[in-house]
Amino acid sequence: MRQFNISVIGLSGTEKDRGQVGVGKSCLCNRFMRPMADDYFIDHISVLSQSDFSGRIVNNDHFLYWGEVRKTTEEGVEYNFNIIEQTEFMDDSTFQAFKVGKMDPYSKRCTATKVFSAEKLMYICKNQLGIEKEYEQKVMPEGRLSIDGFVVVFDVSPVPNRSVEKQVEFVQNVIATIVKNKKPLVLVTTKNDDAYELYVREAEKISQRKDYKSTVQLIETSAHESINIDLAFLMLAQMIDKVKNRVKIISYQESAKSRKELLDTRSEAVTRLIRNQITDYHILWSQGSKMLSQYREWNEFLNIFGHEAGQKLFRRHMKKLRDDHLNKKLHQYLDKFALALEYMLPDIGALNIIDDDAWDCARNYLQNHIEFEQYFFECPQASWTELVDMDEAEDEARIPFDVLETSEAETVFRNYLNSVQQDKKKIGWKQQFKMLLEESGFVTPGKQLSEVRVLFMGRECFEALSEHDCQQIYDIHQDEIIEKSKQNFVELLLEHAQYFLQFKNVDIITQEDVRQITDVIQEDSRYKMLDRLDQERRVMLVQHLRFIHCPIRDHCPFFNNCVDSLIEEVLADKSATSNHKTPGVGVGVGVGGGGGGWKTTGNGSDRTLNLLIVGSEHLASDLLNDIRICTGSKGEYIYENQTYYLNYRIANGDMEAFKAIDVYSSGLICVYSNQQSFETLKDNLERTLLCNLELEDKFENLPIVLVYQPQDLKENEVEYLRSEGMRLSEMLHCDFIDHTQNHQKYVYDILNIVILSLKLTEMKSYDPYPSNHTDLRILCCIFCGDQYDIENIVQPLVAESTLVKASEHSIIVDVFIGDAKRRVEFILSSYHGTNQYRDELIHGYIYFYSAKRRSSLANLSILAAQNANIPLQIIAVTESGGVNAFFNSDICQFLITEGNALADRFKGSFMTFSADQYVKFAFYNPFLKTAWDNKYEVENLHVEESITLDSGEGTLESSVNQMPRPPPRHESYMLSNTLGTDGSGSENYEMLPTRSLNSLNEERDISLDEIYDENNEKPKHLHQNCTESDSCASSTERRVRQQNAYYKASSKASKASAKKQKKKKVAIPVQTPRVPPFGSYVSPPEIPLHYQRMTVVGAGEKKKPEAGVPEFMKSDKSPEYSMVPELTAAGIFGAENLPEYNMNAKCLKDFEKHEKRRIKEETARMRKQQEKEKEQEKKLKRKLKQNAKGLAESVEAQFGKLMISSEQGEIPIFLNKCVEFIEKEGLDSEGIYRVPGSRAHVDMLFQRFEEDVNTVIDVLDIPVNAVATALKDFFSKRLPPLFSKDIIKELEEIAGSRGVGSSKLNVEVKTDRSCRLIALKSLLQKLPPINFAILKYIFQHFVHVSDNSKLNSMDSKNLAICWWPTLIPIDFTDMGHFEQLRPYLEDIVQTMIDQFPYLFCGKDAFVMV
Questions:
Q1: pTM for the whole thing?
Q2: Other Cβ atoms closer than 10 A to 920
Q3: Which of 776-780, 802-806, 999-1003 has the lowest mean pLDDT?
């Protein structure tokens, strides 16, 4: 490897000699020695201080040692270069060249072939001077160098204060000297990137001088651009080395072009690299450079351009990323802003602006808009760009309000403003053109726009709109009028329903038929309107005839809106949007929140607990705070891996809070802390759960949690309130939680109890009736196309709490009709859909028709005529109810009048129904009562029609098998018609059904096989009538007898048996309980479903008296033992009993005599046994009377003065005075015993009586309701129970609330109402005398109250509801037990009121059937 020492020379000296800047020797050396951009320095000064001049870098010499570098040619030849720069340093104080001994002029000194300088250090940059140790230190080899060649520099750029002649002269002189010394040289032009053409030509002239003999090579360079630098030195090295194949000298233009391509390639590669690798504008330069240093492209770029250029490129990329991100975010905000404008500023007219201030007004309007915070937010601390940079707005969907300060936002607003204005104009033109079409009488169905275009020419709206818009609007208008005309034509056909009826059974429609139909309707304008659409009109006519012939849903002219389809959708929606519903209050499992759903037993998917917390003062709020602390801010609670979401509501513990509770909720949390809050809560719970009829259904199966939170009380008070709370919870069968005993997790216990109670409720069967049995079937008929919402008709039905969906078109509701709860099936159908029910048993029809549609009434007339013998109700549906519907329009007045006349013609009822008015289920109650009253006429008619339609055999077997005769109804003797009330609790008591032991009789289904014998000649008799006439039968039974075909066929036999029985009748102190004759419909008891219906005992069996039956029940006065039927052969040997025997007359007679003898002997034996039991009963009574005396003494000792006997004998004086006051002042008080009195008045009354038993209530100024409440408290808190536990168990058995297997009473006693009434009287006689006297006294008072029920709304039923928990204190095991016994215990108390003369006074009983 060759070593060359090169000396770089050029014009130097003072500014006067060289101009303002040098010729570029230092930059040329710098670029050659250190080509990397970071090592290249532009500023190299020649003016130094004395210290810098004498330092080791300059070393008191006028040349610089640039160091040693290795270069390689394209052929792979390596050369080592030591570079010397000959220059002239100036003193910064004198600006003259430093004097170093005997110094030659620069022009001579620079061409020296040997240089000497001991310990001279390599020069790097001017910053090195004075701090040499901080840079690389390299000493010039051996302190001397022999120069092998020269690089002569010629600056071709224009420099002030320097003439080209001076430089040419200098260059020529040094070249001449070098040539003379026979040293190789190259002439290098520098600064060609800023070259002056004249100077370039001067340099070319120098190199081309003949006297140089082509030894001077000219190379054009640029140190700044790093062009041809290495080429100059390599060329010189090859000249020194005398290489023949030297490197090719490339012109500056070509080199610059190649260099630019290289730079562009490197820049593109790095730009692409940065764009791919750096995507987050938050990355710092230190992080980014470290990431990029792994890539070759980045390192090559840094070598060429340097780190500064790389950093500059990086920062430019970061800025672009940020700008792009901000622009993207801005466009997102602007898109949202456009949507916000559409919502917040739909009407530009609201701004009241002109164009100049439109934008400012819009911003002010938006900032003051009520929905501002929904779309915008303000952040005064930072601008929106800073928020974006800090990623503070990433999760914020709203728009920073300062975005509206940008010009882009204003542009969006201006565009929106222009768009709205243009759209508004266009919409106005479209509306005007649409109105023009509607007002024009020439635009008829089927006409083209071209036919009527001339009518609209010149109109602004028509001219302003495009052809496409006009045609579009015209087509829409045509579709509308065609559709309207078709509807009118269908109405025309439907209005002629009576005429089309003749085609119902016609299989083939001829052209003559069509012509006749056309003759009838062609004069109507609705027919003429479709003249241009004759083909479609014919199709519609044929379709209508098909519909008349086969009226099914697919043929309905309103197919898409057919009533049958709409009903399915409505009922399906009600079923799908609701889950299990348990009527109750408070904490409702949420169950969707929707009303009117079906009753199901499945678990709902929606798990939301709507907690209602009831408590006085701050107690409810404190409990709510504890719940929120335990469930977190989101209100989530996990129970058995199921998440429940909690909603909260607080209510004060008063009656209004209970009334406001949603009926579809299902639980309640009650909290108390002291005596006052407990009494308030207790009173309201008792009034709500036990005595309030208005809210009774709400609290059925209600989960309740009673929470005790004692605050600042004495220990004895805490214990007292705790025991009272536990007692109240036992009475209500709810859970009790003591906050003090379980402070840490009492909230979790509350939530667990509520959820568990709801789950248990869901598991219970809710249906109290067999699913296959309904008492009434009502068909509701709605005409297709009537313009009212079907949901308004269905809503009163589906809102019932007992609702069950039976099928896609029917629902079943349990409703009180008369004195008992009946199951009514409502079938919802279209008019044409009623055909599918024509062979089924329907008890009543409800026809709805539109009071503004003639066709609706026309089709109703036909349907009503087809079912004229069945109860019907016609309901006219109006747009607005009352008088307005009648007088607002002539057509409405006419149709309502005609509908009323139609109802009168068919002896039905007529009502109006406003489509926009909500009605309750009571709206249908009168008609249901009518349908129930006519039930048996309808059923008999249905049976007769079935016989008529039979095959001709004369048997009813087929029809009977399809629909067995249902049982008769029982009417409540207390029911009065009060349909004019508003439906609130206090006004509707007379409408409530009276339920007593009288209503515990159900009816047994009797098949026709039991009524008729094989030859269908006369009915069978298993029992004879027990009375001489029908006087002991109810009005209902007499009506049934008149209607029943059986009674018509057997009247003679019945009279004969009645006369015969009269002779055997024995007088008894009460009216004889009847055993109804076989042939009338016997009424089994209304007992729980798990009781099995008892069968008739066979003829050969012996009945043994059961233990526990009172003696008088076994006497000859008892219907079971005294009323021995006179059995006939037909009754004993029915075909179903002895199918294998063929008995002759003689055998039958012998058997009958034998059977009579056996029965006579059995009767005698029973009478002897009865006499023995009577004696035992008398002994028992004497023993009970002795025990009663001891009871009276203990009671008086326990309760003191309140129990002092009154003038009435053994009646407590407090009871006596309260009853006298109530009967004097309160018999006309509405809701007496139901509406509670003030607790303060109650306490005061007790206190006064304890102080003075002769207290006169009249002078105390106490309301009658408070006295009534005190009387109830006297029985519940201060008087021992009137019934012992054993008596209460017998009461349950008499009421039929216990299972047959567990009952001690005879089955006949349980299944016959009269027998149970006698058993109840016997049970009351077992009471101690004082208990019986108190009971008789209070029930006599109840009779007086119920006699005034029209004034006080408290009949026997309502009194029983309020008083049974007080009089019969049973310890219920759970809420289910409570719900099971409640109706039967109510019935017992009600029966004791209704049958007071018989039970307490020894008079005959009132037998209600």
A1: 0.40
A2: 13
A3: 999-1003
> CB neighbours of 175 closer than 8 A, spacing ≥ 6?
152, 185, 187, 206, 212, 216
Return the half-sphere exposure (C-beta side, CA atoms, 13 A cut-off) of residue 1092: 5
CA 1203, CA 1217: separation in Å to the nearest integer? 12
- Nearest of 1076, 1087, 913, 1123 to residue 997 by alpha carbon: 1087
Give the residue among 258, 261, 274 at the shortest CA–CA distance from 321.
Answer: 274
Sign (positive or negative) of CA dihedral 1360, 1366, 1371, 1375 = positive
Separation CA 271–CA 268 (nearest Å): 5
Distance CA(404)–CA(375), nearest Å, equals: 12
Angle of helix 467-495 relative to helix 854-866, nearest 10 degrees? Answer: 30
**What is the model's pLDDT at position 700?**
57
**How many CB atoms lie under 10 A from the CB of residue 53?**
21
Question: To the nearest whole number, what is the mean pLDDT of the chain?
Answer: 75
Tokens representing 971?
A: 């009417």
The neighbour count for residue 522, using CB atoms within 10 Å, is 11
Length of the chain: 1409
Cβ–Cβ < 8 Å for 1279, 1357: no
What does the angle CA 12 – CA 18 – CA 20 come to, to the nearest 5 degrees?
125
Let me know: does 31 contact 103? Beta carbons within 8 Å: no
Residue 808 in tokens: 């896609």
* CA–centroid distance for 31 within its chain: 79
pLDDT value for 302: 85
Q: What is the pLDDT of residues 24-49, one digit of tens each?
A: 999 999 999 998 888 888 888 888 88
147: DSSP letter? -
| Residue 573 scores a pLDDT above 70 | yes
Region 951-975 average pLDDT: 35
* DSSP, res 1095: P
End-to-end CA distance of the chain: 137
H/E element, 61? none
Residue closest to 1395 by CA, chosen among 1316, 1333, 1304: 1316
E strands, 794-871, where? 804-805, 810-817, 820-830, 844-850
Which residues share a beta bridge with 586? Answer: 667
Instruction: Please name the helix (run of DSSP H) or strand (run of DSSP E) that holds residue 1020, with its range, or none.
Output: none
pLDDT band at 958 (very low <50, low <70, confident <90, very high): very low
Q: For residues 634 and 343, what is the distance between their CA atoms, to the nearest angstrom?
A: 30
Q: For the segment 465-522, what is each residue's pLDDT rounded down to a tens digit?
A: 899 999 999 999 999 999 999 999 999 999 999 888 888 888 788 888 888 899 999 9
**Which candidate, 1376, 1359, 1408, places its Cα nearest to that of 768?**
1376
Q: How far does CA 865 lie from the centroid of its chain? A: 46
Half-sphere exposure of 316 (CA within 13 A, CB side): 9
Q: CA of 1132: how far to CAs of 296, 1102, 1141, in Å?
A: 117, 15, 12
- Reading the block at residue 171, the tokens are 């260059």
pLDDT band for 944, please (50, 70, 90 cuts): confident
Give the Cα separation of 985 and 1223 in Å (integer): 23
Measure the CA–CA gap between 1148 and 712, rounded to whole angstroms: 89
Q: Are 1007 and 943 in contact (CB under 8 A)?
A: no
Residue 1043, classified by CB atoms within 10 Å of its CB into exposed (0-12), middle (13-18) or buried (19+), is middle
Q: From the CB of residue 665, how many other CB atoms can be counted at a distance below 10 Å?
A: 26
Beta partners for residue 873, in sequence order = 846, 909
**Rounded CA separation 128/131 (Å):** 5
- Find which of 10-19, 61-70, 1032-1041 is predicted with most confidence, using mean pLDDT: 61-70
- Are the beta carbons of 1268 and 1321 closer than 8 angstroms? no
Token duo for residue 276: 């791919």
The b/e string for 431-448 (b: 16+ C-beta within 10 A; e otherwise) is: ebbbebbeeeeebbbbee
The dihedral through the CA atoms of 1322, 1324, 1330, 1335 has a sign that is: negative
